[in-house]
Amino acid sequence: MTAVLLSAAGLAAADGSGATRAVGGAVVLDEGELDLTPRLADGKLELQIDDRSSGTTVVREPSQVVLHAPASSLQYTPDPVATALGTTNMDSWQLGGWEAGNIFAPEPGWNGSAAGDDTDVSLAAYEGPGEFGMATYTPEMDGEDAPAIPYLGSVESVQRSFTLPGDEERLLPVWQFTAEGVHRLTFTVTSGGSSDTETLAVVVGDDVDPSTVLPGDGSPPTDTPTGSATATATASPSPTAPAAHVIAEGHVDMAARPTDGDLEFQLKEGTELNHEWYEPSEVVMHVRPAAKRKIPDGYAFLGTPGDPVWWLPLQQNAGIVWPGWNTTQYARAELDGRVSFRLDSVQGPGNIAMFHNDAMGVPVVSLDSGDGLPDAHTLGAGTHSHFDWVFGAEGVYRTTFTVSATLADGTKVSDTETIAWVVGDDTDPSTVTPGQGDEPTATPTATHSESASATPTTSTSASPSPSAPASDSPNASAPATEPGDDSSGTGGGSSTGDGGSSGTSVSGGLASTGAQVGTIAGVAVAAVLMGGGAVLCVRRRRFAQ
Q: How much is the pTM?
């Protein structure tokens, strides 16, 4: 067992990166490159961690590290990986998976070049709420229908050891975890007659705060290191905190509804057969940290590739909110034309964009506060559709929409409402006033025209994508379409309307609202089955790169 123990003060001095501290003075590693490295030191083999997350290499002891696989590491599990590791092909939490380049998460590898010879690596023990495994499976292997290569696994049928070559500088298998919670992986490394056994604590998902987890095997330290983290009580909401209904995950539609000859803009939370209606002034939408992604190439209108954004994908992902649009309360015969959803203003710390990808994978932008407002998109009657949503920064946003239509008798109807959003966990959404508020807003941007809304919107250094066409104008003439066509021509199906009022529940058998998909960009728009209400989504075998 490695005899080197570093105090919390020593670690802080070593890296200077302000890394998050866990109980007992351990460092929480939640993003960046790191290698588990068997290393000869004074003729003895030691398993250490080479941490490069701060830009320089810091050598750490596994007993002083808590590895965090965030909620955003939940990804589609390729069948060959599930087969090789004896696990489920349902979505699982993966480090080093195909989405590694798009998410902020640790990138653990193995370095065999410091041991002086080949090293035997074994999983000596495993403790956790699910299963763990490591395997290699790449897009190239997928293209050739090759099997995954297993290295280690907690399932009885999977091997418990592998040989790490002495000339291997960075082996990058996929680390798979099938459940959220605290996992403890005990590795034994052996080379040249010398061995070392170390336990690495891994917190998977966001159900457990990694800063509260003891490192190593979980044994409490004999004494509290200087400068170690201390637990602090979470501040309770003020007695005057608003009684907002917070929606942080699952399906919610922004809907146009007929009421007494007028139009009302409301939010529909739930499925077609089991849902509730809310006024926007009653709701705070929470975009959880699990939505954090890196801007990929080809999305210049969002900012610089690699920079962080908070991305709600077109497909439904577990643990985050899935916003859509809904005009199913209107029959086609009730309207003269389409329903316009106009984004009048955005108040908040960053830009907001809404778009989908065309059949060639090119983003088609419908709403973008970064190049001026108002923006609008239109939907035909009887439509239910979903798009990608991206927020440029953490904080509180307020989006003001005007929803308008012309009834069959020529009557013009409209409703203007403001929706409050909390992005990230810097702000407790239960303390945020729904509807309108007075939070500061970033520098205003130019509007599309002299007559556009003068309400301040946020700015960004990114320029609009040259390939993204302008979104539908609220006054633009739209071609005749069947119910279910969305503003950009990608179809959804119609569904029958349903009753209900604000805050009231409509119950029935729970219907699926969509598959959980790890990829952040899709080419299909979610559709509603004719008369049914179950949403169809395309699940691709290969992820976007």
A: 0.67
